[in-house]
Amino acid sequence: MKVDEYIRSLPSHIMSGDDVALPDGAVSSILDFAGLGRGERFCHLGCGSGRALQIAAEYGAAVSGVDSDPRRVAEAQNVLGPEADVRLGDVTECELPAADLILFWFADPAVTHAMPERFSAMPAGTRIVTIWGPLPGCLPDEVRFPFVLNRVPLSPAPDLRSQLRAVFGVRCVSYATAWEFAERYTRALQPGNSQNDRFLTILQALTIWFEARELGVTCEEEIPDPVRNYVHIMRSFFRIDFGGYID
User: Fold this and answer.
1) Rounded to whole angstroms, how far apart are CA atoms 181 and 166?
2) Residue 69 belongs to what domain range?
3) Are 158 and 181 in contact (CB under 8 A)?
């Protein structure tokens, strides 16, 4: 199947970010990267069972969360206590808790494109951490890929090329760069010794390189041999077809 068909075939609750749990180590890395301090307020939008809130509380932060699934809200309140500020609601519409640091990880464009306007109304200095890319239409303030930090007031991005260059820190994206950043993503978000690491790295590296090529910011003018080889591997062994990007 075509790669875009493969992505659409994944469960919607995973693609939306509604039911994806970050490993504890990834949560700690995010909080360290964003500099969460004792006494600060931490909010997780799409908090799920509340594990990230529990870890943030160990940093001495006051925690709050929002989730659209009443079962998840109940789980989080069970973990944190019935008086915990965990709200049931749609993050694009509900009242958001006051926070110094917000963790926001959604893949659904209907959600991600609605949030920059909401975040812009927050007090100056509010920090928003995303994973993989900055907020739509915004340049990041800090990047430790795959973790990206934006601060209010948000900095508008002139175009997608500017965003890509800000995330990767290079003027053009080579396949070596795409592979390096794909490995960072896999290491950060997968449990140790995962059997899927190589598959995920190949898939992410190809996606990064082809997206950069569509934006005209790849270093290579022609498709490099490693890209063609991995496209063949994905088609032959996993039946995922990147052919539309090559033909």
Assistant:
1) 13
2) 11-156
3) no
Q: What is the pTM of this model?
A: 0.85
| Per-residue pLDDT reduced to its tens digit, 36-90 | 999 999 999 999 999 999 999 999 999 999 999 999 999 999 989 878 899 999 9
**48 and 118 share a domain?**
yes
Q: Per-residue b/e over 12-45, b at no fewer than 16 CB within 10 Å?
A: eeebbbbbbebeeebbbbbbeebebeeebbbbbb
Q: Does residue 137 lie within any of the structural domains?
A: yes
Q: Are residues 144 and 182 in the same domain?
A: no
Q: Are 207 and 201 in contact (CB under 8 A)?
A: no
Extract the tokens encoding 155: 């900095």
φ/ψ region of 46 (left if φ > 0, alpha if ψ in -120 to 50, else beta) reads: left
**Residue type at position 56:** A
